[in-house]
Amino acid sequence: MVLSLLSGLPPRPRGKRWLRSAWRRRLLRTRRKRDLSNFAKSLRSERGSVESALVVIPLMTLFLISFQLVLSISSRNIEASYAQSAATHNSITGRFEQGDVIIDLNSPDAFNKLRAVVTTHNRALPNLVPHLGSQEHAVKVHGFAILENQG
Q1: Does 7 map to a domain?
Q2: How many other C-beta atoms can be found within 10 angstroms of the C-beta atom of residue 85?
Q3: How many angstroms from the chain centroid is the CA of residue 21?
Q4: What global pTM score does this model have?
């Protein structure tokens, strides 16, 4: 009481609060029961569940096929950038990995020999759509760079 006088706030009601909260609790309880019974009635009277399930199957298949295409294109682009980076790095440093191919090119200059390096990267793709194909899908990309100061 003293705190409410000093703070300027109205005093907290004591007896009314208990009555009000008990009334509200009872009201919420009956409202919940009524809502659950209405939900159960609407669930029982729901028609078209089979039709909606039959729509979900092709929709899920369409989603998985489109996601498989996006995943394949993204994997190809990432592997292409890695292969090109490896080819450029190998052409600058002169250290080659197993599987790199060095190609001699025809050069108009007799004193400088042009050579190129081709790197190949392979990566297996995950199969998101079951029974899409029996073979294993993979991405195979090449990187190409001219050898620096190799003559």
Answers
A1: no
A2: 13
A3: 48
A4: 0.58
